Amino acid sequence: MTEQTHQAPCVLVTGGAGYIGSHTLVSLVEAGYRPLVLDNFSNSARQAIERVGVLCGETPECIEGDIRDRSCLDDIFQRHPVTAVIHFAGLKSVGESVREPLRYYDNNVAGSVTLLQAMQAAGVDTLVFSSSATVYAPGVTMPVAEDAPLGPINPYGQSKLMVEQVIRDHCLAHPTFRAALLRYFNPTGAHPSGKLGESPRGTPENLVPYIAQVATGVRDALTVFGNDYDTVDGTGVRDYIHVMDLAEGHVHALDALRERTGAHTWNLGTGTGYSVLEMVRAYEKACGREIAYTVGERRPGDVGTCYACTRKAASELHWQASRDLEEMMRDNWRWQVSQDA
Ligand code: NAD
Ligand code: UD1
After folding, report:
1. Second label for 69, Cα 20 to 30 Å away, from 51, 285, 302, 334?
2. Is the peptide bond before 143 cis (omega within 30 degrees of 0)?
3. Residue 214 Cα, ligand 2 centroid: separation in angstroms?
4. What is the mean pLDDT of each run of 10 residues along the chain (341 residues)?
5. What distance in angstroms lies between residue 94's CA and the mean position of ligand 2's atoms?
6. For the chain, give me the number of helices (H) and strands (E)?
7. How far, in Å, is the centroid of ligand 2 from the Cα of 207?
8. Quick check: 235 and 276 in contact, CB under 8 A?
9. Residue environment code for 308-323, b if the CB has 16+ CB neighbours within 10 A, otherwise e
10. What are the φ and ψ backbone dihedral angles of 142, each rounded to 5 degrees?
11. Which one of 19, 104, 156, 184 is the catalytic residue?
């Protein structure tokens, strides 16, 4: 270990082997932090950490364990000089959360409470939490700002909003505690090296992973969920953000918390929306193949349009997304190709 890494502030990254977590490890190392990963590998593999090691020249320490395991957390805080926690660990499938709500409340809500209890006992007072644009109420005005009405419509979204509330209450009771509640829009893309990316298990629920599987021949055709929305071409519009922009947003959030206490909410999006068909065309351009699709029914619970107001993040985090759609699709495709190689 070099002297620099020894002195670097240690950040515990729960869920650090996952899609967003693993990319954030790269940004943390680049920014001079020493990430320490806790992951139960329920939706990831240790290989992701090794890939980060290849990219960064040093492999972050990774502990296999569960955020609901208090003794595991106490042990980590006792053994490592953790200064802050970035909390990605959680389950994220909307459909699954409708079928198995208790699993979601246990993992996402109870797990976060246990983490906060362990942080409090260890005197660690800085937390960055992965929330989601899904906490906003359907029908809010676009672009959606942080003070827009809230009202998630499925157990996954409820679990995110509940954790936000738990963190807000904890901050009120403990004035030295500080937290960033980061509401992500639609992360996509991969590390530009092609060495790190998203590896969804089973049939992808999200658009870009599904398109990628059509491009690689794993699936025959995309079903476009409705083409009768009030949008540019009738298909749903979302705010897709490059995962490396999102990763860098976490480093900015850590910096911003140095000079703040209390709970702060920030949207992490680009402020620009693209339709499903625009995404299909952009992916076709990146991969040089045609993406077959059929138009189906609207997906229950979907809204026509969702994109972020990015003003608060720009002025308070001094952060804004810089990578465009072409880069998101190109990096995603490079990752697909490198996996096949
Ligand atoms: P992911 O599934 O790739 O990563 C989550 C990681 O957490 C996985 O490595 C998983 O093994 C781990 N994990 C889950 N439960 C755990 C537990 N109890 N203890 C320890 N580890 C556990 O998901 P992601 O896309 O990287 O998302 C990260 C976070 O961001 C999640 O909380 C998710 O809800 C949130 N989020 C994701 C999106 C998105 O579109 N990907 C959008 C908004 C918010
Ligand atoms: C979904 C989740 C949301 C989560 C977000 C980011 C639901 C209802 N919502 O939202 O909680 O925060 O992902 O992870 O699942 N589409 C198709 N065909 C497909 C897949 C998607 O046409 O096979 C369309 C959708 O209708 C939507 C767009 O593509 O218009 C994006 O879908 P998706 O990637 O699932 O993201 P969200 O709908 O934003």
Report:
1. 51
2. yes
3. 16
4. 66 98 98 98 97 97 98 98 98 95 98 98 98 96 98 97 98 98 98 95 94 97 98 98 98 98 98 98 98 96 95 98 98 92 63
5. 9
6. 13, 14
7. 6
8. yes
9. bbbebbeeebebbbeb
10. -100, 145
11. 156
Q: Report residues whose beta carbon is within 6 angstroms of any ligand 1 atom.
A: 14-15, 17-21, 38-44, 66-68, 88-92, 107, 111, 130, 132, 184, 187
| Residue in 19, 67, 86 to alter for ligand 1 test, most ligand atoms within 8 A of Cβ | 19
CB-count burial class (<10 Å; 0-12, 13-18, 19+) for 298: middle
Q: How many residues does the chain have?
A: 341
For strand 237-238 and strand 274-275, is the pairing parallel, antiparallel, or unpaired?
antiparallel
Closest ligand 1 atom to 89 CA:
7
Helix (H, G, I), strand (E, B) or coil at 188: strand
The reported pLDDT for the residue numbered 63 is: 98
CA distance 85 to 76: 12
Per the structure block, which two tokens stand in for 324? 């465009």
Query: If you write DSSP's letter for every residue of 263-295 in order, what string do you get?
Result: EEEEEES-S--EEHHHHHHHHHHHHTS---EEE
Domain boundaries, the chain: 8-188+240-269+308-321
User: Residue 339: what pLDDT?
Assistant: 85
Report how far ligand 2's centroid is from the alpha carbon of 205 (Å): 7
* CATH superfamily placement of domain 8-188+240-269+308-321: NAD(P)-binding Rossmann-like Domain (3.40.50.720)
Q: What is the pLDDT of residue 200?
A: 87
* CA distance linking residue 21 with residue 182, whole number of Å: 13
Residue 240 designated active-site: no
Residue 341, pLDDT score: 63
Could you tell me if the CB of 302 is within 6 A of ligand 2? yes
User: Token pair of 199, please?
Assistant: 């590896």
In contact, 306 and 185? CB cutoff 8 Å:
yes
Local structure of 246: helix, strand or coil: helix
